Amino acid sequence: MKFSKYNLIFEDKEKKHILFNTLSGHSFYVSDDIVIAITEGDPTALDFATQKSFTNYGIIIDDHIDETRLFSYFHNKSKFASPSVSATVLLTWACNFSCVYCFEGAGETTNVMTQESADKFIRFMIRLAETRNAKSMYINLFGGEPLVNIIQGFYILENLKKYCDSHGISLFCGIITNGSLITSEIIDKLLYYNCTMVQITLDGTKDVHDARRPYKNGKGSFDDIICAIKLLSKVSNKLRTIIRINIDKTNTTEAVNLLRYLGNNGEGLTMCGIDFGIVRGSTSACSAYSGNCYIDAFCGARRPPVRSPAATLRRSGHP
């Protein structure tokens, strides 16, 4: 037996040793003795219970196993034998909002996808599906504000639907939108193309949201978005709506007020899923807002309950 070549050892904030195997995905808190054994490449230095546990989770492997070939096998299997293909398509950089933290420049870049580019994307997805012998295809519509150029989005979906229908492939789609341009007609069209998810952003209740995510003319967008969510609630049995709340130092507590508003509203808002996002000043377009952003930090691994029979070994689960 031997130690896996994919074992990594590092320390958390409390200087505790964490063992992580990048091939199997398993991680453990380990003692100094175990660190020494792994560093010296001597699995026989471990007690029987630890050896058995490590073998079960790929930390220790048989001598005859070639992990390089094993990794290559799993990589190629994932690359070429996936029954599903997916892609996100940027329909436009343009947007009808002027959000204070927009990483794309508040929609001032107005480039849109042309039909020529849409045709190239369609051909790419068809080749990808054929290469992987796909059984399903998922297209995520993105922007800017994708509904500004939804004509090309529907053009793409219509052509891919024809291909998928004729080849026994299931087509699905989703859209990430600010919600302001959603109509009953748009919803019906999305459902026709098997849309499974609409993500819409709300950053707080009316006053806070309107200050952060106004239209370009300064008008607030909160009321229009709530109307759109209520329209979507009518088809909640077919289409999932996710409300994304972007968080920074200026609206952390306001997120709680928004959740209360959604929970107390009796007109369909409670059917939505909630997703939190961290605002980051990571591009030149939003660098002026970076002072309001939280600083990323490595928080270390969560300390788990004891699960292993070995007194020195604690499995922490996947990071």
Describe the fold and architecture.
This protein has 319 residues and is α/β, with parallel strands linked by helices. Helix content is 34%, strand content 20%. It has nine helices and twelve strands. It has helices at residues 32-40, 48-56, 67-80, 115-132, 150-166, 184-192, 206-212, 222-233, 252-264, and strands at 2-3, 7-11, 17-21, 27-30, 60-61, 84-90, 136-142, 170-177, 195-201, 240-247, 273-278, 314-315. The chain has a six-stranded parallel sheet. The protein has a four-stranded antiparallel sheet with strand order 2-3-4-12. Strand 3 and strand 4 (27-30) form a beta hairpin. The longest helix is centred in the middle third of the chain and has 18 residues, at 115-132. The radius of gyration is 25 Å and the shape is globular. It starts with a strand and ends with a strand.
Topology, element by element:
Layout: E1 2-3, E2 7-11, E3 17-21, E4 27-30, H1 32-40, H2 48-56, E5 60-61, H3 67-80, E6 84-90, H4 115-132, E7 136-142, H5 150-166, E8 170-177, H6 184-192, E9 195-201, H7 206-212, H8 222-233, E10 240-247, H9 252-264, E11 273-278, E12 314-315
Parallel strand pairs: 6-7, 7-8, 8-9, 9-10, 10-11
Antiparallel strand pairs: 1-5, 2-3, 3-4, 4-12
Overall morphology: globular
Q: How much of the residues is beta strand, in percent?
A: 15-25%
Instruction: Report helical residue fraction.
Output: 25-40%
Strand arrangement in the largest pleated sheet: 6-7-8-9-10-11
Biggest sheet architecture: 6 strands, parallel
Alpha-beta content class = alpha/beta
Mean pLDDT across residues: 85
Gap between N and C termini: 26 Å
SSE order in H/E notation? EEEEHHEHEHEHEHEHHEHEE
How many distinct helices?
9
Low-confidence stretches: 297-319
Instruction: Write down the Rg.
Output: 25 Å
Number of strands: 12
